[in-house]
Amino acid sequence: SRAVLRGSTSCLRAANRNFSSSSQRGHRVAVLGAAGGIGQPMSLLLKQSSSVSQLALYDIVGTPGVAADLSHIETQSTVQGYQGDEELDECLKDCDVVAIPAGVPRKPGMTRDDLFNTNASIVRNLVQACARSCPEAMICIITNPVNSTVPIASEVLEKAGCYDPRRVFGVSTLDVVRANKFVADAKGLDVSTVTVPVVGGHSGVTILPLLSQTTPSVSFTTEELDALTDRIQNAGTEVVNAKAGAGSATLSMAYAGARFVLSLLKAMSGSPDVVECTFVKSDVTDAPYFATPWRLGKNGLEQNLGLGSLSDYEKSKLEGEVLPALNKDIHKGSDFV
Ligand code: NAI
């Protein structure tokens, strides 16, 4: 445990040193899996942001082309492509934020958990590289099953002696994006004014939209609650089926991933009141990782805004459906490492 303690202290020093240098030079952001269906459009959206000064793109195939293409866009940031294991550490060096959409997506008939066997080791290996090359970076995990890959990432960092739970995020933003859109459409509201917190996990019944806490305040019949909750929980499958074997959500996920990363960069630069729902280490329920709305800050997670006051409908889903399934997914991830 002394070794772990020494490791943590040196990680912390590195974090402090790198924070002051990063605020002078802008933010270096890596996308791991950058040539994929999510990676490419997400990198495009990040390239358009002035919060990013360096975009470091990594994949096992195709990154030179994606990087060359994006580097011609007339925004300030530089773009570099890195390909293959031997270039991974160089890609991650000095990164402030790492977004990970590497891994296989679902095909019709598959659950997110069916991806575990392939994606668990991809995430483990990539996060091990983060621990070596940018132990202080914010790590945003997009790769499914998020309910298990976030525990995997956390255990890897813990083993490497540089786990800071404030800096590891499961990106569940797409659930919020979908909830906002579906509720706005159902109720004829301007979607830019609608916010629906989505808590729990990021898979099937573990996704729990808190429709009772929608702002602006709206009321739903029980039929509407059932229909909207079911649609939000299964929206990913709607896309998987529509793509008929060609993958899962990529464009809406790229939007959601960029939204989360840019919110984080904004908070890291000192903007107050940046709030996002995210699946992280949590003590709000008996599940060790759980998504709730969080205030983000310079060091990542700053304040857990918690569950708020739940309706009876939401309470019964939380206890009866969310927690049992979520705990199972989480333990599968932790046990893997
Ligand atoms: P894709 O197959 O189009 O792209 C994945 C990319 O990862 C490919 O370019 C591939 O070469 C790369 N890759 C594979 N192994 C790698 C490794 N060891 N290191 C670096 N790159 C590697 O898949 P897509 O559609 O982009 O999905 C990626 C992941 O995101 C999937 O696991 C999917 O389930 C997940 N996803 C997550 C969502 C969320 O809400 N968090 C929503 C939608 C998808």
Give a quick set of tags describing it.
about 325 residues, 3-stranded antiparallel β-sheet, 11 helices, binds 1,4-dihydronicotinamide adenine dinucleotide, NAD(P)-bd_dom_sf
Short overview:
The chain has 337 residues and is of the alpha/beta class.
Description:
There is one protein chain. By secondary structure, the chain is an alpha/beta fold. It contains 11 helices and 11 strands. The protein has helices spanning 2-25, 39-47, 63-70, 88-92, 116-133, 146-159, 173-187, 222-233, 235-243, 251-268, 312-336, and strands at 27-32, 52-59, 78-83, 97-100, 138-141, 168-170, 198-200, 207-209, 274-281, 289-297, 300-304. Helix 2 (39-47) crosses helix 10 and helix 5 packs parallel to helix 6 (146-159). 1,4-dihydronicotinamide adenine dinucleotide is lined by residues 32-33, 35-39, 58-61, 101-106, 115, 119, 122, 126, 142-144, 146, 171, 174, 202, 247-250, 253. InterPro entries: L-lactate/malate_DH, Lactate/malate_DH_C, Lactate/malate_DH_N, Lactate_DH/Glyco_Ohase_4_C, Malate_DH_type1, NAD(P)-bd_dom_sf. It catalyses: (S)-malate + NAD(+) = oxaloacetate + NADH + H(+). This is Malate dehydrogenase, mitochondrial. NAD(+) binds at residues 33-39, 59, 119, 142-144, 253.
